[in-house]
Amino acid sequence: MTSTTPKLVDWDAIASELAGIEIIRESSQITKLSLDYYHFSPVLQQTLCDKRADLVVRPTNEAEVLRVAAVCVKYQVPLTVRGAGTGNYGQCIPLSGGIILDTTRMHGIRWIKPGLACVEPGVKLSAFDKQAREMGWELRMVPSTYRTATIGGFIGGGSGGIGSITYGQLRDRGNLHAVRVVTLEDEPRVLELRGDEVQKVNHAYGTNGIITELEIPLAPAYAWAEIIVVFDDFMTAARFGEALAHSDGLMKKLISIHAWPIPSYFTALKNYLPENKHCALLMIAESCLEPFQDLVRENGGQVTYQKPAQEASKGTSLVEFTWNHTTLHARSADPSLTYLQTFFFTLERVEHFYHHFGDEVLMHLEFLRTNGQVIPGGLQVVRYTTEERLNEIIHYHEEKGAFIANPHTYILEDGGMKTVNVEQLKFKEQIDPYGLLNPGKMRAWLER
């Protein structure tokens, strides 16, 4: 167990000062709450496996968060914010020990209006949607960890997901309206960021503020049917996915394309996934199913599974076989497998990489919208051998014009952004002058 918090910290004194707030000091619980799904990456497995907090706190409101922040500043103790811990890159793993602030008891839904809602960070995505759909609305996009992930965790560590085919990514203007954050200054404050200012904390791994409240835009809630279509040829499946993505008159929420043998890892769906067939896992508005069937016929696909929205809402959803859950199922079958996250931009690149790497890099596409354009993204399943070979695969993609959001690093800028976000750095310098928030994750801070 590794903790680099100064050994002179008086944890009993800290616990005493936080009396009235739930505190966890039992070692197995601390271990559980110090980790996420970092083990998807064999590189991160080695680096992060022994990282632990010294203490976990579970505040129930903003006033308690302010108390925790003040204590961390007083004792100069690192603070790492955590939602449900469903991230894959070690976003919420404390590199320097200290305190983990678990937000899951801050789960109030303040209000829901047509097209907009205000929530606390610990609200579960699925619980929110259940309530919002009663009014005809739902979240614009969700990760494949939809059932357990929290809204604050998704904003802090996520980037997009189911729904991104229509609404783009979380960082796109308009996908987050406002946040309230607690600072780690000598006298912690509550700040409200609105409009473009939210980008100071959006997808920042909790390195520059503790989110205590969010205003998020909503989407009209369609009755989403879940469908599996199979194809004899992978590129035919990919072209079908692109044609569906470009069919503006067909309302869709998910277009997930999988090359064989990935479908063989989906054991719960095996009756609908014939041997050696490539598949599309889809969510289509029930009102669009008739013209959708014409698109399937036009592309030589075969529908093997179709559930109306009411049925799809019960039991296991196709959502749980897409995006990063695809990797989860693959690794359940073969723990040596890992993954990449790729923006291909064109199907020509998809076809090139599909043939170039063959069985070493198995093709998994997710269609999404970015900068007003629909593109194929990828969460390919990789047969891992060595870190050196993994880096060769990444570099080859980049040399051929693909963009890799590297899931094998816990450094904020080295994963997706690739560049220093000056605005986020300046904000951190202002509100976290001692660098106590999730230390070691922001390269800009380490190199400033």
UniProtKB/TrEMBL annotation:
Annotated source species: Allocoleopsis franciscana PCC 7113
Lineage: Bacteria, Bacillati, Cyanobacteriota, Cyanophyceae, Coleofasciculales
GO biological process: one example: lactate catabolic process
Coiled coil start-end: none
Single GO molecular function: D-lactate dehydrogenase (NAD+) activity
One Pfam family this sequence matches: FAD_binding_4
Name of the featured protein: FAD/FMN-dependent dehydrogenase
Segments forming domain FAD-binding PCMH-type: 49-221
Top-rank taxon, per record: Bacteria
InterPro entries found in the cross-reference section: FAD-bd_PCMH (IPR016166), FAD-bd_PCMH-like_sf (IPR036318), FAD-bd_PCMH_sub2 (IPR016169), Oxid_FAD_bind_N (IPR006094)
